[in-house]
């Protein structure tokens, strides 16, 4: 993640607390996209380091089947 992306994430987290629902909901959507990207990067790194699907699922708080289904084809 670049410094610019990190700054945008911090800004989005702050905006998510905004009293204006339009601002807050847009920020929540941006954070959701960021989390998906980060999760994919970390799952890929774990697999490259030899982690089993069961270990990754446990770290994410989901089943082995769920994480395998989501990422096995990537």
What is this entry, summarized?
77% of the residues lie in helices and 0% in strands. The protein has 74 residues and is mainly alpha-helical. Helix 1 (3-15) crosses helix 2 and helix 3 packs across helix 4 (64-71).
Explain what the structure shows.
This protein is elongated. Helices cover 77% and strands 0% of the residues. Helix 1 (3-15) packs across helix 2 and helix 3 crosses helix 4. By secondary structure, the protein is mainly alpha-helical. It has 4 helices and no strands. The longest helix is centred in the middle third of the chain and has 28 residues, at 21-48. The protein has one domain (3-71).
Strand tally: 0
What structural class is derived from the secondary structure elements? mainly alpha
Straight-line distance between termini: 20 Å
Unreliable stretches, pLDDT < 50, 5 or more residues? none
The biggest sheet, with number of strands, parallel, antiparallel or mixed sense and barrel status, is:
none
* Overall mean confidence score, pLDDT: 91
Helix and strand element order: HHHH
| Rg estimate, integer Å | 15 Å
General form: elongated
Q: What share of residues are in beta strands?
A: under 5%
- How much helical structure, as a percent, in the residues? over 70%
Count of folded domains: 1
Q: Treating each run of at least 4 consecutive H or I residues as one helix, how many helices?
A: 4
Protein name: Homeodomain-like domain-containing protein
